[in-house]
Design goal:
Elements: H1 4-9, E1 28-29, E2 37-38, H2 53-71, H3 76-80, E3 85-93, E4 99-106, H4 112-125, E5 130-131, E6 133-135, E7 138-150, E8 158-160, E9 166-168, E10 176-177, H5 181-191, E11 205-213, E12 219-226, H6 232-244, E13 249-250, E14 252-254, E15 257-259, E16 261-269, H7 277-298, H8 302-315, H9 320-332, H10 336-350, H11 356-363
Parallel strand pairs: 1-7
Antiparallel strand pairs: 2-5, 3-4, 3-7, 6-7, 8-9, 10-13, 11-12, 11-16, 14-15
């Protein structure tokens, strides 16, 4: 679910400024004893004992520039003409922390100035607020300038892991399983074992793994997500299944050479005990509803998507994957309180989330 404004929402503070006393002074100042700075949750002084207000300001300024650079859509005209350089946009930080009166102070042409202004206005639209400037102990209006760097870069086809391994995210041919996808499905059906000691528990759920397929066809599990909190025995059986696939994989290809890459791999656990038929049917119905929700979301029908995920969660209330999807969509609609209910519920169920940095930034610690 990729969305530019969503990327902004994940990092912006949901903290609103306290109401400011209306000021008769409508002057727009250029200097002040206390300069304005953006309010970002990750730069909250309460989270960093020992920080001064200057530390918070520097943190916020650096992160704001990072957010801006990551959300610029390079204008096609600028890309065609290899236009690069720095655009400077100015705006007024009002006493209530909002941005107004945008102006392009320096432009490099081909739509870059307008794009810089668009990104700033988008930030304002999703709730970015500033700590306003102060002169002689009073909040005042102040003009602020921000430079935005436009630089053309070709994306690399790979990334380096902390261990120094090269993992390709772009390739000409994806990794394969001996005999094709049908063979992989049969392998999973025949080899995946439901933990015998839990057969009567009727637990159902999906465990997703990220497989690292090496350039020699080797396979290992990079990480694992137990969406329904099935437990360690189920997680071990999923790992056991992956280990059994060793020797069956062919590596991805990039420019005629085998390369290492990652592959998502999901396994479904359902008990075949007679008494588990109702639980299995309930899970199947919930999965169909969740899939309908995903289809609605892809068609930009967010309200319908939320409704379907809600129906699915009525049947399977502790499915953290669907809680995450619904919460992410709610956040994208600026319904932060509802989103945090879903995000925090995932935390309660699993103890830790795969999106913990995002959850902390949006919902607090």
């Amino acid at each position: 679910m990729k969305n530019t404004l969503f990327g902004l929402l994940l990092l912006l503070s949901a903290t609103s400024l306290s109401a400011q006393t209306a000021l008769a002074d409508t002057t727009v100042y250029q200097v002040a004893e206390q300069m304005p700075y953006p309010i970002l949750k990750s730069c909250n002084i309460e989270l960093h004992p020992g920080w001064t207000e200057d530390s918070v300001r520097r943190c916020a300024e650096v992160q704001l520039l990072t957010i801006l650079s990551h959300n610029i859509r390079y204008p096609e005209e600028a890309r065609k003409n290899n236009t690069e350089g720095t655009v400077v946009v100015t705006f007024v930080v009002e006493p209530d922390g909002k941005m107004t009166h945008y102006q392009i102070l320096k432009d490099i042409g081909n739509g870059c100035g307008e794009e810089a202004r668009r990104v700033l206005q988008a930030l304002e639209g999703v709730g970015l607020r500033w700590k306003p400037a102060q002169r002689e102990g009073k909040v005042v209006r102040m003009r602020q300038s921000l430079p935005l760097r436009f630089k053309l870069q070709e994306p690399l086809p790979y990334y380096l892991t902390p261990e120094g391994d090269t993992i390709y995210s772009m390739y000409d041919a994806e990794p394969g399983f001996r005999g094709g996808m049908d063979s992989l499905v049969r392998f999973v059906l025949n080899q995946l074992q439901y933990p015998p000691e839990y057969a009567d528990s009727c637990k159902t759920g999906v465990i997703e793994m990220s497989l690292l397929i090496g350039n020699d066809g080797s396979v290992e599990v990079e990480n694992q997500l137990d969406f329904s909190n099935l437990g360690s025995e189920f997680q071990w059986q999923a790992l056991r299944l992956v280990n059994r696939t060793a020797g069956y994989w062919t590596p991805a290809q990039y420019q005629g050479k085998p390369v290492a890459t990652t592959l998502p791999f999901r396994v479904l656990f359902k008990s075949n005990k007679t008494g588990c038929a109702a639980a299995n049917d309930r899970f199947d119905r919930a999965t169909l509803l969740a899939d309908e929700g995903a289809t609605f979301f892809e068609g930009n029908k967010t309200e319908e998507a939320i409704q379907k995920w809600t129906e699915a969660l009525t049947l399977q209330p502790d499915n953290t994957e669907w809680l995450y999807y619904r919460g992410t969509t709610l956040l994208n609609m600026d319904r932060k309180e509802d989103a945090c209910k879903d995000f925090n519920r995932v935390k309660e169920i699993l103890g830790i989330t795969w999106f913990e940095a995002v959850r902390k930034l949006v919902c607090g610690w």
